[in-house]
Amino acid sequence: MKLDRRQCLAVVMAVGAVVAGAANAQSYPEKPISVVVGYPPGGDTDAMARLFADKLSQRLKQPVIVENKPGAGGTVGNSFVGKARADGYTLLFTPNPFTTAPFVMKLSAGNQYDVLHGFEPVIKMATQPLVLVAHPSAGVKTVPDMVAAVKAGKPFSYASPGAGSPMHVVAEWLNRSAGVKIAHVPYRGVGPSVNDVVGGHVATAWVTLGPITQYVATGKLVPLAIADAKRSPLAPNIPTLAEQGHKDVVVGAWNGFFAPKGTPADVIKLLNTHLNEIVKMPDVVEKMATFGALPAGGAPDVLGKTNATEHEQMGKLIKELGVTAE
Questions:
Q1: Which of 68, 32, 112, 52 lies closest to 272, judged by CA?
Q2: What is the sign of the dihedral through the CA atoms of 265, 267, 270 and 272?
Q3: At a CB cut-off of 8 Å and minimum separation 6, what does 43 contact?
Q4: What does each C-alpha distance from 47 to 51, 94, 284 come to in angstroms?
Q5: What are the pLDDT digits (tens) for 28-78?
Q6: N or C end of the chain, less CB within 10 A?
Q7: Start-to-end C-alpha separation, the chain
């Protein structure tokens, strides 16, 4: 079959694009890479981002720099990366409020982003169990204890690291399941919420495991429940909500890397390969455990499916529970 001049030109351009893309992927990276974190320095997300960035830098032989862009529940950083050039030099490291924030927050035009179609998933790095802890003065050691105390008229409140966070969602789901109304006290991050429950300013808190391990060990906090479907190997003595009569109340936390939509597939593959190897390194696994995090990994589609499933399921749940950031 003969091709006319226009068809020949189209073929040449297509082949050229493939060759150029392959050449770009082979030479990537040629300059520093920026990893955007939508939260302030000092928290679990920032610390893990720096851990992974340091290891990635060593492997790619280029600086991998963590850039904090906090604000509006992480959406400032999310939207920044969503609008960035899709060349592999701007990445997003984010926990799962990336997926749920648009359901609970009224985002300004500048902070809006497309959760399902605006990014390329790179890799799911870790999962973290959510933990309910109480100050000893609350006088409870189990979830049934807490529910009974609330129903008997004892005032209770729970701290969370922010309105609309997974911790906020699981707490309101537990409220509904138990038929109680424990008041929400939102904070700006896990650290401040932990500080206030340790200080006895709030009776309980939903947090991640890492920041409260030392306080549980010294008796300054009492662990009541894990929100995962099964007990965590990082805290096998803490029972699940399911074990305590709330079998359907399961909410976890995860984090991962995304890139702007249209980032070359070969670049995504390269990053995924390196990060899969990094997340299995013994020293990385050991350090992640101090954050209460377990390694995940897998193909980019693992993160893509997690994001899509949670968008559907959590979106429905958030609407049912009336969870908002207001």
A1: 52
A2: negative
A3: 189, 190, 191
A4: 6, 12, 12
A5: 999 999 999 998 887 889 999 999 999 999 999 999 999 999 888 889 999
A6: N
A7: 65
Distances (CA, A) of 235 to 165, 167, 231, 260: 22, 18, 7, 36
Q: pLDDT averaged over the chain?
A: 91
CA–CA gap between residue 313 and residue 317 (Å, rounded): 6
CATH superfamily for domain 32-127+253-321: Bordetella uptake gene, domain 1 (3.40.190.150)
Tokens representing 240?
């699940």
What pTM did the predictor assign? 0.86
CATH 3.30.450.20 is the classification of domain 130-244: no
Q: Give which of 35, 123, 130 is closest to 84, Cα–Cα.
A: 35
Distance between CA 155 and CA 31 in Å, rounded? 56
Please name every residue paired with 134 in a beta bridge, in sequence order, or none if there are none. 204, 222
